[in-house]
Q: What sequence folds into this?
C-alpha cells in the first residue's frame, strides 16, 4: 500500500489546480465556489458509494475532491455578502451550497448504484 | 526559460499549498476520529476559514503580504485544507443516506453537523477580520 499522506497530498495538488483553473473561467466568485462544491460533492458521492479500494479513495476522494471543494472560500464569500448589506444573498448562498452539495451527494450514490 | 517559470509560478505555488493543505486535513482527521460527529472536518473547516479570513482582510487593510502569499496560503493551502464535499458526504451519512449511511439515520446529528460547521465557520471569518484589524 502506498503512503496514504502522499496519495492525499497528490490528489490535493490536482484538486487545488483544477479549482483554480475552473475559477478563472467563471467571473462571479460565489458561482465558481458553488460550482466546485456541487461537482466535487457529486464525485465524492460516487466514490464513497462504489467499492473503489482505499488507495483510490484517498487519492481521488480525500485528496482530489476534498481539495477541489472548499469551505473557507465559501464562508468568506458568504460573510462578505452579509457585510456588504446583501443579507438575503448571503442566506441564499449558504442554503444553495448546502442543498446543492447534499443533492449532488445523493445523485452520486444513485449513479454509483447504476455502475 | 525564466519567462516560462514566471508563467508557471502561480501553479507551482497553488500545487505546493494544495499538497500540504490536503495532507494536513487527512492528518487532522486521523488524529480526531469521527465519534458521533466528524470532528476532523469541522476542525479543518473552522481553522482554515480563520486563516483565509486573516489573509484576505490583511490584504484589504494593509496589503503587505503580496500575491504569492495569497496563492500558496489562500488558493493552495486554506482552500484545500478545508472541504465542502467531505462535509456534505459526512452530513448525508449521518442522515442515513442509502449507499453511504451506516444503517439507521440520525437526522439530529446531521443538523448539528451543519449548524456547527456553518456557525463556527462564519464566526471564524469574523474573528479573522478582528485579528487582522488589531494587527493592522
A:
Amino acid at each position: 500500500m502506498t503512503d496514504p499522506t502522499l496519495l492525499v497530498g497528490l490528489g490535493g495538488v490536482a484538486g487545488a489546480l483544477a479549482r483554480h483553473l475552473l475559477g478563472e473561467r467563471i467571473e462571479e466568485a460565489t458561482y465558481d465556489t458553488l460550482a466546485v462544491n456541487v461537482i466535487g460533492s457529486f464525485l465524492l458521492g460516487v466514490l464513497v458509494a462504489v467499492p473503489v479500494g482505499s488507495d483510490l479513495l484517498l487519492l481521488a476522494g480525500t485528496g482530489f475532491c476534498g481539495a477541489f471543494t472548499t469551505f473557507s472560500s465559501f464562508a468568506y464569500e458568504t460573510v462578505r455578502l452579509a457585510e456588504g448589506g446583501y443579507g438575503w444573498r448571503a442566506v441564499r448562498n449558504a442554503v444553495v451550497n448546502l442543498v446543492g452539495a447534499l443533492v449532488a451527494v445523493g445523485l452520486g450514490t444513485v449513479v454509483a448504484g447504476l455502475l | 526559460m525564466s519567462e516560462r517559470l514566471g508563467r508557471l509560478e502561480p501553479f507551482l505555488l497553488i500545487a505546493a499549498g494544495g499538497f500540504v493543505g490536503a495532507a494536513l486535513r487527512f492528518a487532522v482527521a486521523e488524529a480526531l476520529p469521527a465519534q458521533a460527529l466528524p470532528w476532523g472536518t469541522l476542525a479543518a473547516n473552522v481553522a482554515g476559514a480563520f486563516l483565509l479570513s486573516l489573509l484576505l482582510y490583511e490584504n484589504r487593510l494593509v496589503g503587505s503580504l503580496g500575491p504569492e502569499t495569497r496563492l500558496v496560503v489562500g488558493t493552495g493551502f486554506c482552500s484545500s485544507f478545508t472541504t465542502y464535499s467531505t462535509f456534505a458526504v459526512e452530513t448525508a451519512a449521518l442522515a442515513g443516506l442509502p449507499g453511504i449511511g451506516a444503517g439507521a439515520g440520525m437526522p439530529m446529528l446531521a443538523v448539528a453537523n451543519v449548524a456547527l460547521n456553518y456557525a463556527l465557520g462564519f464566526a471564524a471569518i469574523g474573528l479573522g477580520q478582528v485579528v487582522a484589524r488589531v494587527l493592522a
Observations:
- The mean pLDDT of chain A is 95.
- Chain A touches chain B through 53 residues (CB under 8 Å).
- The radius of gyration of chain A is 15 Å.
- Residues 20 and 68 of chain A are 9 Å apart (CA to CA).
